[in-house]
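Please predict the structure of the following assembly.
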Amino acid sequence: MLRGQSIVNGRAAAGTGAVFFGFDPAAGARLEPGFHSAALADVDEAARLAEEAFESYGRLGGRERARFLRRIGEGIERLGAELIERAMGETALPEARLKGECTRTVNQLRLFAQVVEEGSWVTARIDRALPERTPLPRPDIRSMLRPLGPVAVFGASNFPLAFSVAGGDTASALAAGNPVIVKAHPAHPGTSELVGWAIAESASECGLPAGVFALLFDAGTEVGTALVEHPRVKAVGFTGSLGAGRALMQRAAARPEPIPCFMEMSSTNPLFVLPQALAARAEQIARGLFGSFTLGVGQFCTKPGLIFLPDGDAAGVLLNTLAALVRQGAAAAMLTAGICRNYAAGLAAREHHAGVEVLAEGAAADGAWTAPALLQVDGEELLRAPELAREVFGPAAMVVRYGSRDELMTLARALEGQLTATLHATEADLAEFAELVAVLEHKAGRLIVNGFPTGVEVGHAMVHGGPYPATSDSRTTSVGTLAILRFARPVCYQDFPQAALPEELRDGNPLGIWRMVDGAQTREPV
Amino acid sequence: MLRGQSIVNGRAAAGTGAVFFGFDPAAGARLEPGFHSAALADVDEAARLAEEAFESYGRLGGRERARFLRRIGEGIERLGAELIERAMGETALPEARLKGECTRTVNQLRLFAQVVEEGSWVTARIDRALPERTPLPRPDIRSMLRPLGPVAVFGASNFPLAFSVAGGDTASALAAGNPVIVKAHPAHPGTSELVGWAIAESASECGLPAGVFALLFDAGTEVGTALVEHPRVKAVGFTGSLGAGRALMQRAAARPEPIPCFMEMSSTNPLFVLPQALAARAEQIARGLFGSFTLGVGQFCTKPGLIFLPDGDAAGVLLNTLAALVRQGAAAAMLTAGICRNYAAGLAAREHHAGVEVLAEGAAADGAWTAPALLQVDGEELLRAPELAREVFGPAAMVVRYGSRDELMTLARALEGQLTATLHATEADLAEFAELVAVLEHKAGRLIVNGFPTGVEVGHAMVHGGPYPATSDSRTTSVGTLAILRFARPVCYQDFPQAALPEELRDGNPLGIWRMVDGAQTREPV
């Protein structure tokens, strides 16, 4: 029942741009129907309606916004097998993975619903008036977070549900009170359309203005660029490549009114095996590592791509186990033939780099199909050629051998920003390498001990972020409830009469939220 | 006892660039000694030492950082009359204002000391492991805010103490655990040097690495540019003009590793007088408004520069009172002759704009001396020529007459981002104009009822920020304790053993801070 059309104003928008198709990468077959790229007039219309919708949606109470988010979740659940089948066809991802991702997407919407229903996320603060203060009385000052305005969200290729049309960016932006315009990823247009209608219908069922959500298709980059440059768009959420993300960041920064950009882009997720852990658990670490860097054909932003091991024989068991697993690794289809070509090119560039050794490779493959690979380089060469430490999107990992503890510290300090850094370590290792942990804290958004970075919990404490180029703004996360803070700003109300204040800031605390009153956390009325 | 030299590594740095002098704008006289512009090698050295210092200072406990901030406050207080006299000479600001600003600066350092001593600002969150969860167990995930790294701070001309060497940007960046490199504003180099040594000596007395603070002089823009582009600098705090701020934003965005910029730049601070308030308090509003827009010779970022009044006779008393006050307004010296020239040019451009009427002007003046001015334009002309709504830095205000409520809403919607928006209104006015309040919420960081925007409280609830061009990032404030959040990022610790966790995240909660544990606020141990 797919129409192949964008959604603007709650209706299918014909679109006058190029037609493109979904594509089954495993079968190498085109999927019907054709999708019509949106016109620039559709971008304009979506942005105008979003701005209009913002005046009411931005002031809607948390309970009403929660209802909308829950309704979207129900709508996605109702899509059921139809959604999973289309997503399987468009991405070659297995059914169990997509079912899990669907559950995660729905749970994420429900988690944000809880957050805005509970309401304390707005960081309400009240400094009461001090009329007797000298030399000047203090006025009554109250502040809380308010939404930014229309947000442009770019769907990611590698999470057709959880980082796409109703993914974390959309959920957190809607939760904070912002209308959302999604630019669908062209690798899964059918999946995007199905979820897009679930959102648009939920908006209608909840009596919200249709401008609160739009979905735009485009075979190329014109629509995305126009969205980021549109004067009515006030923030951007993006998950994708460093090249595309950086280009959009520059567009956003060059606008007459620059806007905040939250791009999650590129990370090699270094993993350090420390001596005592290596001695105790070499084979177990190797098996876990293989599972992690080949999970989903290596197409996770948190794939561990750099593995730091000491020179010499100590790492032998780990390397042998890992190499054997890679050699047995079956070929699998990547998300798109283009991603597979990029993977092959990135791998070839490394394999031909002097000083890089191929430790093992899986079975040969063609089309969108590929197999795992394990490379090795020594630390000195990595310092000479830091491009070797950049992300290769696919099931490859690079072992980095280092000669001394000092060299390890030099290598760690030379790392770029990362989403994650992982340590396999005993408690004694951690104490001995405390300086390494301290350096990694400055490099990554999440540090993991004795686990693997793939698998990102959606919770209150999660940070899926990190210094550039991992993201465009290390001060934020794109996963977990803290993600809502990206799409809000503090607004201060000075000497407002009670009736003119938002409920969150009224003396009686009618919503029962946590607030800071005269510097102290409390849920009591003022 | 001034040396006229930058401070790097806790020592005077000779500097090899151009020599420049402080200047008494009231007397038109040069002040000794000459100040030596820093060399690019000094920038490099300061950045290298700051990065080194960060490894220890960034991990220092809140109590130790609080001690440092308090020591700086004491050092500034000890400077006493010497500091106030030099600042008076360099800025022509009156003694009482500078004494007040000094108290504010010291209190601000103490307030941030309290915040980091108390410790809850780090937003600690703990999601405990769920080993029995299916299909996958949940790991233990904890997160908290961590400092960013070396911060470049640009002193502002109009607050030689509170927004300068030891001002709000420095205080909040140091409080969060970041080393600071200040680029002194060349309009008050002596004041900057005195305060700079107070910080450097406090660092030494507290046993901190000298790289935690540096002060750099420059007659031009080379040092500031080099700082923003320096790979070891990780964030920027700036208060100044839109032109300079935007230029530095572009430099920061074009770096190989873009960094966050917090620029406070430009605002005309619209003030709306609503009908019932106008009928009730016209003269009182006029007197308050005159005091506010001429305070400090109009050299406040929060100066109310646009005054919205209805067409017709209702505004007569207000306008007559205001015009009479302006005509009696004495000439006063501005901060610098250059600022005075810019003011004169901005005023002349508006006076010569067709449709702009000069309602009143104060006495003629020359050199750095100027007098207040009151202009008027109708709403239609303002919509045609939106440049008339841009900030004029100095004691001028523009009355905007509007014909209807619809026209007022159109004018409000056309406003750019602002630090503040003010309403003079009865409760009935506020109810009737609720739509205006809703629009202004999207335009400004702080909304004020029946007060005036000059005078910015340093407290927990204050927001001194707003959409571009008021600031570069509406999601932050540069005044008040929320300002500390600009210079920190969340870091997540997954499955860390207790001993390897920061104190803030340990089960026992040894610091007794507020934390979110499994979604609920608590100060209890886990």
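The CA atoms of residues 286 and 319 of chain B lie 7 Å apart. Chain B touches chain A through 85 residues (CB under 8 Å).
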